[in-house]
Design goal:
- The chain folds into 2 domains: about 425 residues, Up-down Bundle (Amino acid/polyamine transporter I); about 160 residues, HUPs (Rossmann fold, 3-Layer(aba) Sandwich), CATH 3.40.50.
- The strands form 2 sheets. Strands 5-4-3-6-7 form a 5-stranded parallel beta sheet, with helices on both faces. The chain has a two-stranded antiparallel sheet with strand order 1-2.
- It is built from 24 helices and 7 strands.
Length: about 675
């Protein structure tokens, strides 16, 4: 049942040789890797308006200028990453650039920032989608965290089916989102030019400035306000780095296809973001922090109703633009909610790849570097899902709280990546003599230098404006990841040094003392005794722990009656313990001959049903756990197959031989119906 359920959820297993079949063309790679950056259109403008609303609606006149500043930074970052995907196409992205050019600690810092960013990408995107869903379905209000957690589980299940299959599934909603936003903005701009564009549903409201922001702003206060709005708007840049980490997933030529996709991503995201900001201004949208709705007042100064629901910018724009065509409104809101869920797919593609690279470098558990049945890094996908759900539950799926943690890690990796690329080009220029190549390298270095300057300024602004608002949590999380990865690498290095072979390992033990654990005289015990005797140890004895005198007497009688020529050692246990007497005896034998080994033979039942395993071998399991920590003691399991295990093996064999639909087409069977035999098997 477990295997059938797994196949239903994930599909059939893929051979390692089929890895090339999972590579993505540009039309699929764009929605797979760009959905995060494109989805930021659904919340980055909202964050700009929320920050500007601190001093009242009059500050909204700065929104389009802040949008242009964010667009300039995004174009700079896109241009910089186009250099990265050509120079480092292996998929390491910022981590590889920093490690190669700045050293291991810089690489660890980038890796920590990216890991935190991927987790936050999932949490923020899914939480924002849950907010949209609650706005459309009132029954979900108050259950956003649960809704978001369920969405994360479903998204993880889709990604476990493989990158190409999940990418094909996600492509249509992403393109529909682009169609919806471009269609809404184009229709809105047409109505604006024709003078028929209506006001937003919140246009009649008045925003009271936050405490301390009343009255005319000083120059310093204005600069600080604009800096906060700019840093929040820079959430639009999250996800841009994902393509540099996913270059191996592209079809050949990988670097060129990745660079083209990156350029398309930047142009599309900027166009949509600026269109939304312009329309929001023209429609007089009023939008504040969802936790400060009491700052909204009616036109006559009265309080808004208690049941007032503040809808996101795109929702308000769509409702106004399509005021006479409700299907258009529902289409925009629906695909926006869907794309916010799918935006997390970018992280589900980037995080496992980065985790596999870190595992290869000994900085993460090696399980993260293993591909699953569908050639996806399954352990990384599951780990990301669990971490994201924890974050969603802790912050109750509130996007405004999570967004404060969001972009610190992104710009840390941006800065170190740009600095690493500058050193990369400088190192190559020292040995390059071709004039055309040098000109290209100088141009690339200039782009990365400009990118470093821009992202450094943004990082400083983000740290200054968001540190106390929650950015310190991100920095703390990055420090934890940094220390954990260093500890993992230190552990692997110590283990490697400890396991290095030397001449002492060739020395044979002076003595082998074998003991066969005995619970009663039956077939498993007799088989273990025969197997141990065939190994010809120096000393062989059966060991029995006596907890009941009557049972011990019966065993001794059976032993004598069968005339077994192997001595039986009785270990008396007055407190009815079974494991401890055996462990103590094995250690005692070992201390008596430090250069020898103690071989413990453990008879075990092999059962075919999962519930039967709960009824057998529990003592053997506890004993193995204890003996693992005893130096010089080796454990040998002697299995005895019960009938249920034989029946299970026969069923599995029949299942493997059965022909399934599509097996002939995929080459799993020959036209005569026999299973396909591998070349290695024929040679053998």
């Amino acid at each position: 049942m477990g295997d059938v359920s797994k196949r239903v959820l994930l599909g059939r297993k893929l051979r390692s040789s089929q890895l090339g079949e999972t590579l993505l063309p540009k039309r699929i790679a764009l929605p797979v890797f760009a959905s995060d950056a494109l989805s930021s259109v659904a919340y980055a403008p909202d964050e700009i308006f929320i920050m500007l609303a601190i001093s009242g609606a009059t500050a909204y006149v700065w929104s389009w200028k802040i949008g242009i500043a964010v667009a300039i930074v995004m174009l700079t970052v896109v241009a910089s990453y186009r250099q990265t995907v050509h120079a480092y196409p292996s998929g390491g992205g910022d981590y590889e650039v920093a490690t190669v050019n700045l050293g291991r600690n810089a690489g660890l810092t980038v890796a920590s920032a990216l890991l935190v960013d991927y987790v936050l990408t999932v949490a923020v995107s899914i939480s924002s989608a849950a907010q949209y869903a609650a706005g459309a379905i009132p029954s979900l209000i108050g259950h956003e965290a649960t809704t978001a957690s369920i969405a994360v589980v479903l998204l993880a299940a889709m990604n476990l089916r493989g990158v190409r299959e999940s990418g094909a599934f996600f492509a249509l909603p992403t393109y529909l989102f682009m169609l919806a936003i471009f269609g809404m903005c184009a229709f809105g701009l047409v109505r604006l030019l024709s003078g028929t564009l209506p006001e937003a549903e919140s246009a009649h409201l008045v925003i009271e400035p936050a405490p301390g922001w009343e009255g005319p702003l000083s120059s310093i206060a204005l600069v600080f306000l604009l800096a906060r709005a700019f840093s929040s708007g820079c959430a639009a840049l999250t996800g841009v780095e994902a393509i540099s980490n996913g270059v191996p997933a592209f079809q050949r030529p990988k670097s060129r296809n990745a660079a083209t996709t990156l350029l398309l991503l930047g142009l599309i995201a900027i166009t949509m973001m600026m269109s939304v900001i312009v329309l929001a201004n023209q429609m007089s949208v009023r939008y504040v922090d969802p936790h400060e709705l009491d700052r909204l007042r009616t036109a006559v100064g009265g309080a808004i109703p208690d049941d007032y629901e503040q809808h996101p910018l795109i929702s308000q724009i769509a409702r106004g633009v399509f005021d006479s065509f409700s299907p258009g409104f529902y289409f925009v809101v629906t695909v926006t909610g869907i794309i916010l869920v799918l935006a997390a797919n970018t992280a589900f593609n980037g995080f496992p790849v980065l985790g596999s690279i870190l595992a290869k470098d000994g900085l993460a558990p090696r399980a993260l570097g293993s591909r699953g049945d569908r050639l996806a890094y399954s352990n990384g996908i599951v780990f990301l899902a669990v971490m994201s759900i924890v974050l969603i539950q802790v912050f109750d799926a509130e996007t405004t709280k999570l967004i404060q943690l969001y972009i610190v890690g992104v710009f840390v990796s941006f800065n170190l990546s740009q600095l690493g690329m500058i050193r990369h080009w400088t190192r190559l220029l020292a040995t390059e003599r071709d004039a055309a190549t040098r000109a290209r390298m100088l141009r690339s270095r200039a782009i990365n230098t400009f990118g470093l300057g821009m992202t450094a300024v943004v990082l400083v602004i983000v740290l200054v404006t968001k540190f106390l608002a929650g950015a310190w949590i991100t920095i703390l999380a990055m420090a934890v990841f940094f220390l954990v990865m260093r500890a993992i690498r230190k552990h692997y290095d110590n283990v490697e040094d400890e396991l290095a072979a030397d001449e002492k390992d060739k020395v044979l033990p002076t003595r082998v003392h074998a003991m066969v654990l005995t619970s009663k005289l039956h077939k498993p015990t007799l088989r273990a005794l025969a197997f141990a005797k065939a190994a010809r140890p120096n000393v062989l004895e059966a060991v029995y722990v006596s907890t009941d005198q009557d049972a011990t007497d019966r065993l001794l009688e059976d032993w004598d009656r069968r005339r077994i020529d192997i001595p039986l050692k009785i270990l008396h246990s007055p407190y009815r313990e079974v494991v401890k007497p055996i462990v103590d005896y094995a250690n005692e034998v070992r201390r008596g001959n430090p250069r020898g080994v103690v071989a413990v033979y453990i008879p075990e039942y092999v059962v075919g049903r999962w519930w039967e395993q709960l009824l057998h071998n529990q003592t053997a399991l506890r004993l193995k756990t204890r003996l693992l920590f005893c130096p010089g003691v080796m454990m040998i399991s002697v299995p005895y197959q019960l009938r249920s295990s034989v029946a299970m093996a026969e069923r599995e064999d029949r299942e493997q031989r059965r022909t399934h639909a599509g097996d002939l087409r995929s080459g799993r069977v020959r036209p005569d119906g026999d299973p396909q035999i591998s070349v290695e098997s024929r040679q053998d």
